[in-house]
Amino acid sequence: MPxxxxxxxxxxxxxxxxxxxxxxxxxxxxxxxxxxxxRYVRTLVGDDAEDxxxxxxxxxxxxxxxxxxxxxxxxxxxxxxxxxxxxxHLRHRKRRPVSQTPVDELPEQTAPEDTETTALDSLSTEAxxxxxARLPHDQAxxxxxxxxxxxxxxxxxxxxxxxxxAVRTAAHRGLRRLEQLIHDLELPR
Amino acid sequence: MNDxxxxxxxxxxxxxxxPTGPPRLARLLAAASALPETVRAEGEQAALAAYxxxxxDRRGRRRRRVPALISVKAALIGLLLLxxxxxxxAATAHHLARSPEDKRSHHARTPDTSKTFxxxxxxxxxxxxxxxxxxxxxxxxxxxxxxxxxxxxxxGNTPKGKAKGNAQKAPTx
Lengths: 189, 173
What we know:
The complex is a heterodimer. Chain A starts with a helix and ends in a 5-residue tail after the last helix. Chain A has one domain. Helices cover about 70% and strands about 0% of the residues of chain A. Chain A is built from ten helices and no strands. Chain B is mainly α. Chain B has one domain. Chain B is about 75% helix and about 0% strand. Chain B contains eight helices and no strands. In chain B, helix 3 packs antiparallel against helix 8. Chain B starts with 7 loop residues before the first helix and ends with a helix. The C terminus of chain B is likely disordered. Chains A and B meet through helix 1, helix 3, helix 4, helix 7 and helix 8 of A and helix 1, helix 2 and helix 3 of B. Chain A: Belongs to the sigma-70 factor family. ECF subfamily.
């Protein structure tokens, strides 16, 4: 997560400006955060991720005046909103949330075999996400929130209603499993 | 699972982006979190429109709130002026009636004809008023200062001070 750690002060300044009404600052925030939220929402709702994430941004923009905190807090806040929108979306579609679906019942959302084959040539973002999507859902969600959205274990624990220790353990298991997948698929070193 | 190097601590450091652990796994995590070159314009425009609308809405609400506050304040001030003004007017009238300075100033402006009455009737304040009317009517002289007070601003600052004090309290209350 070095990309999140570096320039945190600059990101805080941008956030402050966006909260004060600077539209360009809000645009910068959007461009930084939206792609990460979109990847997170995709782990929850699959193909509807674009629509659900757009809806989440409407809520973020509307409630922005109520937010008070730094850029890390803002990432957690936006992820919480995105998660609520995703779970609402799943409820409206009268589907069980993906997180409560047993792993073997999960639809093949983002990990078709050809994506993984492509991954052997060049490790694109899509390919990397396809690997992560093969993990048990709780591990995939935690790894996306920590690595992609850029949250610490405490923030993830708050969003998911778990203990930080449980989040760390799940992330550890997820990484070990990922490493195994890489080994099995002979991803080039 | 067969990588003994990936313990809990190493996993935690990899998640934080530190250059450690199995290189292929590190590359995978870096690729997963890499930002794209561009984002979809429609999504960005919709988010910006919502941002603008939310700000305009908040500004609108602030504008609507201000006149409401002002009118409440004005009503309070008016009510206080009404309530305290009457008391102050009566008090001032009383004060005027008894004030020696007042007596002197009116005496100075009194036409020469009044001097006749002064010498004859004694109490100056009665004489002044009756002199103006050109008919000596000492029995009605008590009402004269009150009548005069109605036609000029209050010399006393009681109502003004009270109204100001309440105006300052109005927004918070």
